[in-house]
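Work Package 4 report. The design task specified in the project plan requires that, given a folded chain encoded as structure tokens, an amino acid be chosen for each position. We show below one input record used in the internal validation round.
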């Protein structure tokens, strides 16, 4: 009669002696696939599958293919668990005093502008910062779109003009 500790270590030793390739074959064997189907799935020969399964059967101490699958399924359930990391909780939030008398700003844009002014007093920010504001009226949006179209037309025309001048200079 053996104690449960030695049986546990024998099973663990058998589990660790299985190679990744043998485990891949055994996983497909658990899906009730034939050696030919396993060979197709793993892109190897049928003989290689049979060799891996025979070696795994010998390693697990099984008498036949079905017993190999049963032993492997039990060992996989016991030893192939996904390790998990302990949960890392963020630090507890702290209360921050509000600079506004009633606790909330009268306008969210006031809050945004005050934060920008306090956060970076030396940096001027992007020159196009206010270009894409969503509170512009339709006339302002149309004006911006026309300005963008004009700029997009002037840049290629300017490039063509420069190219024409360079062509004339080179041809002289």
């Amino acid at each position: 009669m053996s104690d449960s500790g030695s049986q546990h270590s024998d099973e663990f030793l058998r589990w660790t002696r299985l190679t990744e390739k043998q485990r891949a074959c055994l996983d497909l064997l658990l899906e009730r696939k034939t050696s030919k189907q396993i060979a197709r799935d793993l892109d190897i020969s049928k003989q290689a599958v049979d060799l891996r399964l025979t070696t795994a059967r010998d390693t697990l101490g099984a008498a036949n293919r079905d017993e190999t699958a049963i032993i492997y399924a039990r060992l996989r359930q016991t030893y192939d668990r996904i390790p998990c990391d302990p949960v890392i909780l963020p630090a507890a939030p702290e209360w921050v005093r509000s600079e506004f008398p009633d606790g909330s700003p009268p306008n969210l844009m006031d809050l945004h502008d005050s934060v920008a002014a306090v956060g970076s007093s030396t940096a001027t920010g992007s020159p196009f910062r206010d270009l894409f504001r969503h509170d512009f009226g339709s006339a302002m949006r149309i004006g911006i779109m026309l300005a963008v179209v004009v700029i997009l037309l002037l840049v290629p025309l300017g490039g063509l003009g420069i190219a024409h001048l360079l062509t004339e200079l080179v041809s002289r």
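The two ends are 106 Å apart (CA to CA). Validation will be extended to a larger panel in the next phase.
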